[in-house]
Amino acid sequence: MKQDSVPKEALQQLAPYLWEIPASFRSDMRVPARLFATKEMIDSLFNDRTLEQLVNVTTLPGIQGAALAMPDAHEGYGFPIGGVAGIAWPDGVISPGGIGYDINCGVRLLKTEQTYKEVEPHLEKLARALYAWIPSGVGRGGKLNLNPQDLDNVLKKGAAWLIQQGFGMAEDTEHCESNGCLEDADPDMVSQHAKERSAQQLGTMGAGNHFVEVDVVQKIFDDDMAERYGLFEGQIVVLIHTGSRGMGHQVATDYIRLMEKAMPRYGIQLPDRELASVPFSSVEGQNYFHAMNAAANFAWANRQMITWEIRQAWKEEFGKTHKELQILYDVAHNIAKIEEYEVDGQKKKLLVHRKGATRAFHDQPVLIPGSMGTASYVLAGNEESLKKSFGSTCHGAGRAMSRTAAKKKIGGRELLDDLTKSGIHVRAGSMLGLAEEAPFAYKDVELVVDCVHEAGIATKVARLKPCAVIKG
Amino acid sequence: MYSYALLDHTADVRLQVTATTLEELFQGAVLGMATLLHSENKENITISCDISIESSSITSLLIDFLSEVLTLSHIHGALFTKITQMTLTENSIAATIGATKVEYFEKDVKAVTYHEADIVKIDPNTLQTIIVFDI
Lengths: 472, 135
Description:
The complex is a heterodimer of chains A (472) and B (135). Chain A is of the alpha+beta class and 472 residues long. Chain A has helices at 39-45, 50-57, 116-119, 123-133, 148-157, 159-164, 192-198, 223-229, 245-262, 283-318, 383-388, 403-409, 412-421, 431-436, 445-455, and strands spanning 12-15, 18-21, 33-36, 63-74, 81-88, 93-94, 106-115, 211-220, 235-242, 278-279, 326-332, 334-343, 346-355, 358-359, 365-368, 376-380, 392-393, 425-428, 459-471. Chain A is globular and about 65 Å long. The model of chain A has no long low-confidence stretch (mean pLDDT 95). Chain B is 26% helix and 42% strand. Chain B has helices spanning 22-37, 58-76, and strands at 2-7, 13-19, 47-54, 78-88, 92-101, 111-112, 120-123, 126-134. In chain B, strand 7 and strand 8 (126-134) form a beta hairpin. Classes of the chains: A alpha+beta (472), B alpha+beta (135).
């Protein structure tokens, strides 16, 4: 087990926003470790094990180019959160630790044609309606109690199956990464435990940092792109941040345990148990890949069901005359996908692991959720991300303060009052949980977004300001 | 004898469990996790489940056992607080655990991780480990 800390001297600046720990730093590194950050961000990375974990990622068999960390990176399990690795496909490994416990945790943005001025008088009632329609917290089941056949259909078909059942519009899936469904999904590779844990959770938000937020488009940075995305200043939009609930949590738990046992059979030794990996082509690797894709489909279906719930709340408050809310986009930020990149002058297919990182293909909307009182962002992917970061960019702000410290600093009721005074209507299941999620407990999303913009791995399109927040 | 304490962690939750025997360490870990899930009274045992697990080391066994308890908690909507019967070796456990039904959990505990987990003797009569939960 090699877990040497990384000294500051090991870090070399390659470009204004790009840093490297060379492959010579540790004998087991197969490639360099690179991170996107400003000079000011670098110091905080030495407060936890982010860099050590990034160096550990470089030891994965088959890793190509460099192990990458986005500017919102912080310590995770195995991979740092904000970590990206492109691994040779099909000859390299697959690592559940490179995807995380919340498979296809992601973000979806819905557009209205209403302005803040029109919606502002309704915000308090709207927040109440959204809270009533969207089950949140832990243990509160959804409206659908899926039988085994239905659950298998969700795992195979993702968002499309819900639309077939009447919970959405045919065009909804056109605005989702991978059209809201990964074809290599096999429900038979998902354990009974995972199915039992999630059978009642479709259309539920969960708790922690997950939320549904009504935002106003506060500022447009790129007029052309905003027009293409159908965004304008003063417009009301709705942001959904949640994932695959107990389905993904259990698939990850099952397969990390299985892989930890299987690794010695493949002669794989890694510096951290949470990096547990097996060859992609092995039986265990294939089973996990198919189970992970099934869990990802559950997440897309979950965000689709929540979309339907939001549309119902909207109808309740505004009647049936307004135009149905449209999806701008739906992106995953915990996933592994087979994509093609140029590495060392050669086109190669790679299994790109993104853990707390967003795909950012050319012109694709990239959604960056903030933290309740702070802004969220719409960015656009660009060509540079394909060259520099395996088509990836940041995913959010990341925590900077523990839950205990946040609760010591402010009570839930006081925070609620503060947010209300600043024009944000909050509905939360737990005051303690609300205090834990106080905006100051997170890193500054503005710095993170500015960094990816300047580094050229995504372009700022619009800033969103919250005006109603629904939390578990 | 056992004790547990929730320690600070930037993004998640870190539980420290201390005990005189391995059996007590496992019991302390179960109760510590239950406290994390729900802070109220959990004396009224109404559900019982059997768990049988093998792992590569005693530390992995503890994490795998707690993962199973967490899964059963979510499936049954119940808080498992008590190991009523246990046969424990260095790499296997067969146990019966008791729970009480709850309406909801206070924390969304996604998973029990291997991160930082390591059962060590801190003195000749005391075992201790850290357990980090993904929240």
